[in-house]
Amino acid sequence: MKHLTKLPNIGTNIFSIMSALANKHDAINLSQGFPNFKSDPLLKDLVSKAMQNGYNQYAPMPGNLELNKAISRKFERLYGTSYHPETEITITAGATQAIFTIISAFIRQDDEVILFKPAYDCYEPAIELHGGKTIAIQLAAPNYSIDWNAVREKVHSKTKMIIINTPQNPSGTVFTEADMLALQDITKNTNIIVLSDEVYEHIIFDGNKHQSACLYPDLKARSFITASFGKTFHNTGWKMGYCCAAKELMEEFRKVHQFNVFSVNHPMQKGLADYLQEPNHYLELSSFYQEKRDLFLRLIKDSRFQFQAAKGTYFQVLDFSEITQEYDVDFAKRLTIENKVAGIPLSVFNENNKDDKVLRFCFAKTDETLKKAADILNNI
Fold it and tell me: Closest by alpha carbon to 279, among 38, 91, 73, 63?
């Protein structure tokens, strides 16, 4: 049989490549974004209790109502605004499924989608699969700030969606209030949908406030917000997330969601609903991860790597230009094979594989792991 691929430029993603290389060479894996410490035993107990209490059949398609209500209360507490738990919140099989479903529901042949690079790698393939066209705006290292006049020049009648990610993976930067106001101004009085990927909303540092799209009334009316329980509660393998949007947008989302997923793990939903009754479970995350970021950066301050401290996420970008002028993918592989520590090269997230001589390292690791990795990096 012969088939014409719908994704001719897509191969194995860099996360799988680097993790496999780390496993093969017994290297410390700071590449893929997952914690190597355990999630809260209380949360696991609550999920087990939900199983024992019979939450083992299909959940309602939009999600367990208790969980949707808990999410609605969280938005009220954090942002002074909310989403209706029955009509404006849907539980998803991770944020990636939410993102794919949003794009599936709205992007048609030749629609244009603006996104900012370096960009997480799930956006562009979904756009391509649905016949859309990616309009990439490349951001410059090390600040990765946005020229909103350049964005304005890209917006026209074919622009259907703008994708933002704050705190941003892989750069570790965050959008400011000025950024969000500029985005709101550009999209005002248009039919443009904003897909706001906010999976690291609870991991933001140095007293900064997360600038959620829901804080800005016109943005909220045109935006989907996607979020991840896996990122928030150290259990990425559960693949639990959610998205929020105005009722008329969510109705279109659910038309697709009911056929590509329908509903997601019911006992986990019930366990998370109970766990969210205590706000400190997510309110304390920023300080928890800032301690890890600060530890990692203190440990490597005398290394030959250069850096600006990440403003959010659990990723730190390190500039290796004083060490070598190798292509970043080659250096990342050599670092894994020869030095036994794995990171992610950022060129794979850039337009035309632009190489800024930087690698991304995940610091969502035990202190012991970070110290071992720092010892290696200091000796390079």
Answer: 73
- Share the mean pLDDT of the chain: 97
The domain boundary, picked from 258, 278, 298, lies at 278
Average pLDDT score over residue span 10-28: 92
How many other C-beta atoms lie within 10 A of the C-beta of residue 143?
10
| pLDDT confidence bin for 361, thresholds 50/70/90 | very high
How many Å apart are CA 314 and CA 121, to the nearest integer?
17
Contacts of 138 by beta carbon, 8 Å cutoff, 6+ apart: 117, 350, 351, 354
Kindly state whether residue 42 falls inside one of the protein's structural domains. Answer: no
One-letter amino acid of 294: D
pTM: 0.96
Q: How far is CA 46 from CA 54, 62, 87, 273, in A?
A: 13, 21, 26, 9
Take residue 38 and report the two structure tokens written for it: 């355990």
Q: Helix 94-106 and helix 247-260: axis angle, to 10°?
A: 110
The whole-angstrom separation of Cα 156 and Cα 158 is: 6
pLDDT at 33: 87
Judge whether 48 lies within some domain: no
CA distance 171 to 164: 13
Containing domain of residue 353, as a range? 14-36+284-378
**CA-based nearest residue to 329, from 341, 304, 316, 346:** 346
The CA distances from residue 8 to 116, 191, 362, in Å, are 22, 31, 30
More confident residue, 33 or 67: 67
Beta bridge partners of 163: 115, 195
Residue 28: what residue type? I
